[in-house]
Amino acid sequence: MNQNSLKRTLSFRHLVFLGLAFMTMMIIFTTYGIASQVTQGMVPAAYMIVLVAMLFNVYSYGRMVKVYPSSGTSYAYAQKAIHPNAGFFVGWAIMMDYLLTPMLNYLVVGIFLSTAFPAIPAWLWIILFIIVITTINVLGVKIAANINFLLVIFQFSVVAIFAFLCIKQVMGGMGTGTLFSSLPFYNPDVPFSAVTAGAAILFLSFLGFDTITTFSEETINPEKTIPKAMFAVVLIGGGLFIFISYIIQMVFPDFMSFNDVDAAGFEVVSAVTGNLFTSLFLAGYIVACFASATVSHAGISRFLFAMGRDGVLPKRFFGYLSPKLKVPLFNILLVGVLSLLALMLSMDLLLAFINFGVLVAFSFVNLSVISHYFIREGHRGTVKNTILYLVIPLIGFCINAWLWTNLEKSALILGGSWLLIGLIYLAYLTNMFRKSTPQMNLENIDESEAV
């Protein structure tokens, strides 16, 4: 057994639930208010656009994980398939993205629990959650995966009860009074640009399938298991988002009547279900954030481990693997400490950074497929190969670029500033580009290890 390799214990089921936990099924209630107003009541249509975009991205991730099944991240793919410098910048962009995602969950938990229990300040909830989730990740990823299995089941149960109550209310005459309408998907009075603007907001809901690739070294038969798990996560999550947003539109069609756009999801829940279910819903939402924070904390820890093992980050610290626990212990603890920044960062700032990093990652994974298969390997002699290795990933890249045009200026400014800092660090790392950029050593990994 390679002493610097992670232990293979994760199956298809583990990965699906890790991905669904990270996606946070109940995030639809967080974004519904602003998305419904931006799309003018066509949130389901916006979700369909994002689902299509995600399927193209999943395809490209699946192609690349077959080539580089170890430490599968967009960073590794761009580094190996395009150029080490491209890999560095992708890694640099999504490093901040991954670091901020658990902070976002901690911040949301603090906000909602302090609202429900005013006597306890938000900062105390945030610190408590950070301590608990850091401890879970120190104990090992399989424990985190098994815990998330239960948490995801609870989320699904809460959402299912909510959907049932909505359908019951609509059939009783509430809202539109009908369960069938094409307006949430096609409304000639709503410009298509409004729907695409909503899609740019909602693509964050699908984050999670890409995090699955960070567990490649802990997955049994990753070349086959990871692509199947990614498709399953996106299809399950996308179907749920479209269905729930449609049901909400039917039961609460007046998207301009919310008292607080940020809390619109909770207003709908309260109006439809009453106080008892609202309490259950709050519990489900907190569970969702807990599950997502657990997975995202684990994911960024392993991402930092991969970069540390490469020498892109200081190897002695970031490349350290606990001999006993077989987890990147220092990274897990570091992420826990950095997550305390949730005490002082705003929601808008966190979302802006995350949006930017995600689109960088998705775009370069599509380009990696073209570079590796179509250009380097020469799979372009047939129409089939041209479609598989050029047309499909190129469409995925173009959709991501299209969504990029809908990002707020603040996201572009903050993301560009972060990349500039990365350029300065790369110049230092390579002695003003006179040395080559450190690359991932995939030969370190023992591919046969499985439990």
TrEMBL record:
Membrane topology annotation: Multi-pass membrane protein
Highest taxon in the source lineage: Bacteria
Residues that span the membrane, as ranges: 12-35, 41-61, 82-100, 120-140, 147-170, 190-209, 229-252, 282-305, 325-345, 351-375, 387-405, 411-430
NAD listed as a keyword: no
Alphabetized UniProt keyword annotations: Membrane, Transmembrane, Transmembrane helix
Pfam families: AA_permease
Main location: membrane
Amino acid permease/ SLC12A domain ranges (all copies): 19-370
Subcellular localization: Membrane
Name assigned to this protein: Putrescine/spermidine ABC transporter
Species whose genome carries this gene: Siminovitchia terrae (Bacillus terrae)
